[in-house]
Amino acid sequence: QVQLVESGGGLVQPGGSLRLSCAASGSIFRINTMGWYRQAPGKQRELVAAVTSDGTTNYANSVKGRFTISRDNAKNTVYLQMNSLKPEDTAVYYCKLTNRAGVYSADYWGQGSQVTVSS
Fold this sequence. Notes:
Blueprint lengths: L1 E6 L2 E3 L5 E9 L5 E8 L6 E7 L4 E3 L7 E6 L4 E6 L8 E11 L2 E6 L3 E5 L2
Parallel strand pairs: 2-11
Antiparallel strand pairs: 1-3, 3-8, 4-5, 4-9, 5-6, 7-8, 9-10, 9-11
C-alpha cells in the first residue's frame, strides 16, 4: 500500500502563486509516475502535470508555462509550483502515484487539496 499526504492548497488572488506538495510513503516501486490532477465542480478530473521517476514531465496545455512539476526522489515527494493563477484554475487538486513493474501498474490517490483563485 501507498499513502499520499498533500499540503499547500488555499485561497489566492488571480495572478498569484501557490505550491502544492505531496509526500508518499509505503510500498513505492523504483519505477513510478507521480502527478497532479484536478477536478472543478461539475467537471471531470483532468491531468495537470506528471513526472516519471526518471524525470520526464508532461503538462496539460492549459498550464504550460505557468505550472512546474518537480520531485525529490530521496523524500518521495512531488511538488507543483503554480504561478500566474487564474480563476479557471480553481479546483480540488489530487496527487496520484502510479507504481509500475512490467505490465503491472497500480494507482494511489491523495485526499485532495482545494485551490481557490478569486479576488
